[in-house]
Design goal:
This protein has helices at 3-6, 11-35, 39-42, 68-83, 169-177, 182-210, 212-235, 291-306, 314-317, 342-356, 421-427, 535-544, 549-556; strands at 47-52, 58-61, 92-95, 108-117, 120-130, 159-163, 166-167, 240-248, 259-268, 271-275, 321-323, 372-379, 386-393, 430-437, 453-459, 463-468, 489-492, 500-501, 505-511, 516-520, 560-563, 566-569. By secondary structure, the chain is of the alpha+beta class. Among the domains are: 3-228, no CATH class; 364-528, no CATH class. Helix 2 crosses helix 7 (212-235), helix 4 runs antiparallel to helix 8 and helix 5 (169-177) packs antiparallel against helix 6.
């Protein structure tokens, strides 16, 4: 038997390698969340970890944020371009440049460390995590009115952060001097470094146990297997050409101009092409996204339609084609701003799902709430230190072809968590005075959209407020006759004489001590004709507080009354028509 045959691992060995690598990445992820200094990492979980091969291709990732599967290879490619002939054990690199590397925006900083086994470079361990503040004109570094990347904080190309396991303190001093929250930023970076070092040690031990050649052969089999699995699933779908489009409210600069995201899908056999050339030109404001994120978003859609538990790696990314137009919102030219990329990705994902509904029967869905974040910067009234309160929110999930939408959740590729009220109030100069679901905010349908929520804050000191949101102007669309979800909104001092309604994206609004901020998140769109929803299900919605009695009658044609045992169907209501 020749060496090539000996080195070919069998399916059991490949599965053991896959599970071992997945376990390593999971351990890295848990360490990162437990050692995070900022609420962004330890509470919101805005971070991911991965293991790559020597080409920078992801062979294992713990999927917290699906877009990072496209960001890791681009970040590793930047390291290889600059240091490919000068990599050593004990090195570690920093990079957060969206154009030189693959970070979605500059606050997402990557820590990348090479793995060496018996003197052989075999790949990288890496982590990407959002930073509380890296400078720029507004706290949090995410200005909704940025006009170029230079308005978005400190940008690092691939730079050597550690040599011989010793940190470069000069780089740390540069980062600290550019941040409003230097202790948090450096603490989070060091937490990333620690989890990456554990990952390197675990991969080295796995290579020693399995044999380096056999582990690398498993790498290749994992990449090939993921690619072939996805293409085999695509081959089962109907051939065709379909298109769809969605719009982002605005780019933060031209507030009356929606941003078009258009996709044409060409599917033949086991090949599928996503053509986005019909999308808008790159925007003046920070609504642009980089190509690596476009590909990752398309993979997210495919995996969601096939099997959400299937293995995802760079082999999956190679299983389909993406066509972009240079100078467009999805392939912008440097230095176009990119920091508010998430609403654009949500629009892209929903356009792809809308077009794919014609290819994959029974997997249709409406639109969800999109994504949003609020950022409040100020000084703690007791300690006097600067703080940045950064929170991620969703709203109502989309109704699907066989299920209602989930209420008060993240949707699509966004997968962070809402920071607990107790943490917010204990760490920042604010009080959460209201946090509740909004009845009737989910789009009506045979399957109802998920509910959005309202969250209201009382500012306990002077601060600077920014919001990056979506679907405040263009509501989440329903599908197959379902109703639209209720749009979102943001108000300062609602109901007061000085009330102000902010646009979808706004940077650096001055909050005063005692001001109130009310965020209303959108509901998800409904699926199917509302009058086809069983009266008993509408009654259950009323009893749960998801639908009001007026909404039950107006949207669903179901009359309810308050009886001795609570809400009940009104026996006097006339028969309903399915014609919505």
């Amino acid at each position: 038997m020749n060496d090539a045959c000996v080195m070919q691992p069998g399916p059991i060995e490949v599965e053991v390698a896959r599970a071992s690598l997945a376990g390593i990445v999971q351990e890295m992820q848990n360490l990162l969340f437990r050692t995070g200094f900022s609420t962004i990492i330890r509470e919101s979980h805005d971070a991911s970890c991965a293991i790559t091969n020597a080409k920078g291709e992801v062979v294992a990732q713990h999927i917290v944020l699906p877009l990072h599967i496209g960001a890791f290879p681009a970040c590793c490619a930047a390291v290889l371009r600059s240091y490919g002939d000068d990599l050593h054990a004990g090195d570690a690199f920093l990079i957060n440049h969206p154009y030189d590397g693959g970070s979605p925006h500059a606050p997402d900083m990557a820590v990348i460390a090479p793995i060496f086994v018996d003197g052989n470079f075999i790949g990288f361990c890496g982590s990407i995590a959002h930073k509380s503040d890296i400078g720029g004109p507004v706290p949090g570094s995410c200005s909704g009115q940025a006009r170029e990347t230079f308005n978005e904080g400190l940008h690092l190309p691939a730079v050597r952060y550690e040599t011989g396991f010793q940190r470069n303190l000069e780089i740390e001093r540069i980062i600290a001097s550019n941040s409003r929250t230097p202790e948090l930023v450096l603490g989070d970076i060091r937490g990333q470094l620690g989890c990456v070092r554990i990952g390197v040690q675990r991969v080295e031990a796995l290579a020693t146990k399995s044999g380096l050649a056999r582990l690398l052969a498993c790498y290749d089999r994992l990449l090939d297997g993921a690619r072939l699995r996805l293409r085999a699933s695509v081959a089962e779908w109907a051939d065709g050409d379909y298109e769809a489009e969605r719009f982002v409210d605005d780019d933060g600069i031209e507030l009356e101009k929606p941003v078009r995201i258009h996709v044409r899908i060409h599917k033949r056999g086991d090949e599928i092409l996503f053509d986005f050339c019909g999308s808008a030109d790159q925007t003046r404001g920070p609504a642009n996204i980089r190509p690596s994120l476009v590909r990752a978003a398309c993979l997210f859609c495919l995996v969601s339609l096939i099997d959400p538990h299937m293995t995802m790696n760079s082999g999956s990314l190679a299983a389909f084609e993406v066509r972009l137009r240079e100078g467009s919102v999805l392939d912008p030219r440097f230095p176009a701003p990119v920091n508010t990329y998430n609403p654009t990705v949500h629009a892209l994902v929903e356009a792809v799902f809308a077009a794919m509904a014609n290819i994959v029967p029974g997997r249709g869905r409406a639109d969800g709430c999109g994504g949003r974040s609020i950022i409040v910067g100020g000084r703690n009234t007791s300690a006097g230190k600067a703080y940045v309160q950064y929170e991620l929110f969703g709203g109502g999930g989309p109704a699907r072809a066989s299920k209602d939408g989930v209420s008060g959740t993240m949707v699509n590729q966004a997968n962070g968590k809402v920071t607990p009220v107790e943490i917010i109030e204990s760490e920042f100069a604010t009080r959460v005075t209201r946090f509740e679901l909004i009845p009737d905010s989910g789009g009506a349908g045979a399957f109802r959209g998920g509910l959005g929520f309202v969250r209201e804050y009382l500012s306990l000191g002077d601060a600077r407020f920014s919001i990056r949101s979506s679907k405040h102007v263009i509501a989440p669309e329903g599908a197959r006759g379902g109703g639209a979800g209720r749009a979102g909104d943001i108000h300062i001092n609602p109901g007061a004489p000085d009330e102000k309604r902010l646009p979808t994206r706004y940077a650096d609004y001055p909050l005063r001590d005692g001001d109130r901020v009310r965020l209303v998140t959108p509901g998800g769109g409904g699926f199917g004709i509302a009058r086809d929803r069983a009266p008993e299900r509408v009654l259950a919605d009323v009893r749960e507080g998801y639908v009001t009695p007026d909404g039950a009658l107006g949207d669903y044609g179901v009359a309810v009354r308050l009886g001795d045992a609570g809400w009940e169907l009104d026996p006097r209501q006339p028969p309903r028509s399915s014609a919505a």
